[in-house]
Amino acid sequence: MLDERKVSFSGVQPSGNLTIGNYLGAIKNFPEFTEKYKCFYCVVDEHAITVRQNPAELRRRTYETLALYIACGLDPEKNTLYVQSHVPAHAELSWILNCYTMFGELSRMTQFKDKSAKHADNINAGLFTYPVLMASDILLYQTDVVPIGIDQKQHVELTRNIAERFNQVFPDTFTIPEPIIPAAGAKIMSLQEPDKKMSKSDENENAVVRILDDRDTIIRKFKRAVTDSESEIRMSDDKPGVSNLITIYSCFTGKTVSEIEKEFEGRGYGEFKLAVGEACANRLAPVQEEYRRILADKAYLESVMKKGAEEAAYYARKTLSKVRRKIGFVNL
Ligand code: ATP
Ligand code: LTN
What's the CATH code, domain 7-181+298-327? Predict the structure, then answer.
């Protein structure tokens, strides 16, 4: 039967233990699309090797990221969950799209600039062309929507430009995708430097709360969160630490900002931080329990990977063969 639903696609790199930034900005929102959309959620291991990875850890994290997808509510029967390197069409389309992407466009990507500064000893060509592989991920499935955190918006905009450029030469090849960015939680900040994004590869462990951190660790990290010298719990641009904590508390409890400001009126930062830590730990506890159960069954995870790769490859092949035909490659 022809599946006429719109398509949702997103990916997460298995490049570290996932943070509450990854959770609130991306993964938590993936299941919303399950019923109405045809959904592809990918563990992007090829993206992860743009910075050096320990092979054993990369392999382990690939299983772990898949297990987290499922623990966060993605049913493998209803969503196509798979690993990027299991579907060679991603790398193939990426080569082709490299020839439709401009050097200047890639030079402007802020993630490239940030990561080259952070890994100055390894500014490899893959780090530079990373957004083209991401465009291939998205365009291979004729994707309509891409749920992501705000830091990835620029990459989806580039994807749209590449698709439009390609479509201009070869009409009706790609669907033009839209980024879907959550109203709250699209950019969770570091708990230690609240003007910086919380990032799973941050070296300061106190700056990040991981989805799999235990309750005591979560509460301790929130207790140590940097705030300011005032004592008022209020959302404001000049109070980045407190504002970030209000956002996190709001995402985990469903309370609005004004409800939270009212709830903590006249109460101190210590009390507030404890409440944020508890709300976060309470919400993550069932995810962690489910994760442990799923991760213990490696054979099950491999069966999900295998089924997902077969499903994804079916759709990817359709687009790739259309592209090959249009650009003049001989299809045998
Ligand atoms: P790295 O530290 O390795 O660069 P990352 O933490 O930025 O990784 P990714 O795997 O690149 O994580 O991102 C997966 C998804 O999580 C993306 O949609 C991204 O926008 C989202 N995301 C990452 N960090 C945050 C954050 N701090 N707040 C909200 N969303 C985030
Ligand atoms: N670049 C993203 C991860 C990613 C992605 C994608 C997200 C790779 N391919 C396709 C959405 C759609 C990141 O660094 N967070």
Answer: 3.40.50.620
